[in-house]
Amino acid sequence: MKKHFTWLIALGLLAGGAGAQTSMPLDPAFERFLRESMVKVTDQVGDFTITDSEGVTWNLYQSLDQGKTVFLDLFFTTCSYCQLYAPIIEQIYQNTGAGQGNVLMWGLSPQDNNTQINNYKTQYGITNPCAGNQGGGPAAINIVKEGQVFLGYPTYCIVCPDRTLYFDICYPPSVACFNPYFSNCEQTVCIAGFSADQTEICQEEGVHFLDESVGNITS
Fold first, then answer.
1. Contact criterion met (CB below 8 Å) for 146 and 132
2. CB contact at 8 A, 8 and 37
3. Helix (H, G, I), strand (E, B), or coil: what is residue 164?
4. Where are the domains of the chain?
5. Is the pLDDT reported for residue 187 higher than 90?
6. I need a surface site. Which of 41, 60, 140, 198 has the fewest CB within 10 A?
7. Phi/psi class of residue 167: alpha, beta or left (left: φ > 0; alpha: ψ in -120 to 50)?
8. For the chain, give me the number of helices (H) and strands (E)?
9. Which contiguous run of DSSP H or E holds residue 158?
10. Is the peptide bond before 110 cis (omega within 30 degrees of 0)?
11. Which residues does 205 contact at the CB level (< 8 Å), separation at least 6?
12. Is the dihedral of CA 210, 215, 217, 219 positive or negative?
């Protein structure tokens, strides 16, 4: 797994910082400086499958191959910062089509069961799919975190259709902060695909093709 990176600093300061920010938060300005200094972009993120708290199954690579950009919200239900920023994440979800457009959003919890997640979603107005320990959330988080410097929850990531991972971006979050990443992902979408109404034809018969391509294939 190759990584593009700029520079790493103060790893010794993070020895006890792999948990949630709720336990021992850093100064917000310093934490933002640390996050912006860490490894960010991975050429290829590993595949995973989750089943959300409503029983719907999602596969990362299948979604990406359909030209979707996937926003990942790494959270847990009792994390105070996750709760604090939940309205912003929900606004981003709504602004990007609420799962009906080119952006999907999945919440991944390392420890919560479906009931806990659904109660959290109701209390904080979250409507995007979320998976916890009953739906493969912990395993998916481990795949996303592989090779990265993980500072705690919440962590926000974006995966482009070409499987590029932007890890731990936009903290603290704002609606506008994620837009450049979405734009970068849109530029990577280019998938050729056709389907035909029949596969066997005789002389002088015709075939109707349906263009299912995504992006500007000829550019």
1. no
2. yes
3. coil
4. 3-190
5. no
6. 198
7. beta
8. 6, 11
9. strand 155-159
10. no
11. none
12. positive
Pick the CATH number of 3-190 from 3.40.30.10, 3.40.50.300, 1.10.1040.10, 1.10.1740.10: 3.40.30.10
Residue 197: pLDDT band (50, 70, 90) is low
CA 21 from chain centre, in angstroms, equals: 20
Q: What is the mean pLDDT of residues 90-98?
A: 98
DSSP state of 178: G
Query: pTM for this one?
Result: 0.73
Q: DSSP string covering 76-125, please?
A: -TT-HHHHHHHHHHHHHHHHTTTTSSSEEEEEE-SS--HHHHHHHHHHHT
Beta bridge partners of 52: none
Q: Which residue has the tokens 């310093």?
A: 30
**Confidence (pLDDT) at 217:** 45
**For residue 106, which phi and psi values (nearest 5 degrees)?**
-125, 130
* pLDDT greater than 70 at residue 33: no
Q: Which two tokens stand for residue 80?
A: 């105070």
Between 38 and 172, name the one with better pLDDT. 172
Specify the pLDDT at position 200.
63
Q: CA-CA distances (angstroms) from residue 113 to 14, 51, 52?
A: 28, 12, 10
